[in-house]
Amino acid sequence: KNQVEQSPQSLIILEGKNCTLQCNYTVSPFSNLRWYKQDTGRGPVSLTIMTFSENTKSNGRYTATLDADTKQSSLHITASQLSDSASYICVVTNTGGFKTIFGAGTRLFVKA
Amino acid sequence: GAGVSQTPSNKVTEKGKYVELRCDPISGHTALYWYRQSLGQGPEFLIYFQGTGAADDSGLPNDRFFAVRPEGSVSTLKIQRTERGDSAVYLCASSLGGFQNNEQFFGPGTRLTVL
To answer: What is the CB neighbour count within 10 angstroms for residue A103?
Structure first.
């Protein structure tokens, strides 16, 4: 059972454009949600973390939102750059079992 | 070191062989995690160490997989009688404390190919 679902699976955009990636989760009880960026051949790197009481968090051109009621999160990338081409992974941690569940990721391709 | 390191970066082995994958966490990080990542998928949890002990090994797929962290620092993931389905990237991560709000810092992974 996949408790973290991401969409779209892949996305192609032109350099300079904005995009939004989606994450829906059913992990409960909820502790925190992170967005990671994973470049090809590398380990994931954390972009943002949000706890239950936070509904938005920014890191440069990356802005994450969280709706804990609907269990949805989004990652918005502004003015995309070629270096934004990567997989973006939504990760949810629960409080009860101390489990960290990774989504399958969205593969973003930024074209010149 | 500055970050989590993993060796080897690539490992090719034959079906039925034994392999060991090594992880050097960030100095001072008490928590260490092993994940397995197949192509096009997110990392899949295998095992979590707090210090020297395995706090959660529920992600290990079967008894061919075993991991140790004898001195609470370096960890070794051991796979016996490898199968073609074991082919994946094995990621290691470390954090200052347990899961909760502590950021996990990932190594570059070891790409295991079982022929």
So the answer is: 28
Q: Do B42 and A49 touch (CB under 8 A)?
A: no
Question: Is residue A109 within 8 Å of A11, Cβ to Cβ?
Answer: yes
Alpha carbon of A51: minimum distance to chain B alpha carbons (Å): 8
Q: In the β-sheet with B5-7, what is the strand arrangement from edge to edge?
A: B5-7, B19-24, B75-79, B65-68
Kindly report, residue by residue over B35-58, the tens digit of the pLDDT.
999 988 999 999 999 999 998 898
> A45 vs chain B: nearest CA distance in angstroms?
7
What count of residues does chain A have? 112
Is B74 within 8 Å of B60 (Cβ atoms)?
no
Cβ–Cβ gap B108/A41 under 8 Å? yes
